[in-house]
Amino acid sequence: MRVVRPPILRTIANVARYLKHAARALVVYGSLLGFSRVVHADVAACVQAHASGQREAKAGRLKAASELYAACVSQDGCPDAIRAECAEFRKDAERSLPTLIFAALDEQGGDLIQVRVYADDQLASETLDGRPIAIDPGQHHFKFELASGQVLSADVLVREGEKNRIVSVRVPASKAASAPPVPSPAAKESHRQLPTGFWVASVTSAAALASWGAFALVGHGKQSTLAECSPNCPESGRSDYDAMQRDYLIADISLGVAVASAGVATWLFLSSPRASTASEPTAKSSPSRVTVLPLVSTRAAGIVFNASAF
Q1: What is the per-residue pLDDT across 192-227, written as a single tens digit (0 to 9) for each?
Q2: C-alpha–C-alpha distance, residues 290 and 266, integer Å
Q3: CA-CA distance, 196 to 185, in Å (whole number)?
Q4: Which domain holds residue 105?
């Protein structure tokens, strides 16, 4: 038996079927519209990164330019032509971007590791690991903050295209190490001048010794002349004899003065502070000893000084 639906029911079923197809069409259209908007946004971001990267590169900010070119290349919806150009620009920027290797040394020249580095008041590195760091070209002020809190600085002109340039600072030597050593009292004594009396006595001794030699030579000449005519010398030979005696007397006096002055000079020299080096231990000083011995002969008289400071 065939069941016949009323016309109203068939109309309702057809309307429901049409609504179902319309809903599917709306879903598909909405998806296509959203995808179109995403693709449009990706293309706009790609073009913007391409243009901004070129501006940054011309301004010398190669690090920011490289990052923008990298973002341009990573955009999925970026046209192939723009993406390829961004990749080429990025290679050029990386080739021109300088890199620095920071180093810090202690007073002995050893490497320091726990050091923070600031480039123009911006943190560039937490520690020193020997790896290169990209820095834009130009004048930069670097600060090295040591673990002890001490801060060292360096002003560096970074040139475009420089790679792995070493920027090093060193902890200055302490004042105690850099100050010149204070000379010891023994070293100071080694530079003292001799007393004036020493020089006066030395000059007097030398002059008296020269006088002794001159008068002794003259007296010896007169003695030789008288010896030739003896015992038949004329009456005028008496004056020559007296002159010979006078010359010998002056010579003897000069010799005595020379010996006495030499003894005084020797005593002054030995009684002055002894010269010694700082490395030598300071010996216990002992009093100087001077021995005076008289010297008497048939021709002359004198005094012998024997001095010692040991």
Answers
A1: 567 787 778 788 888 888 888 888 888 777 777 777
A2: 9
A3: 22
A4: 99-173
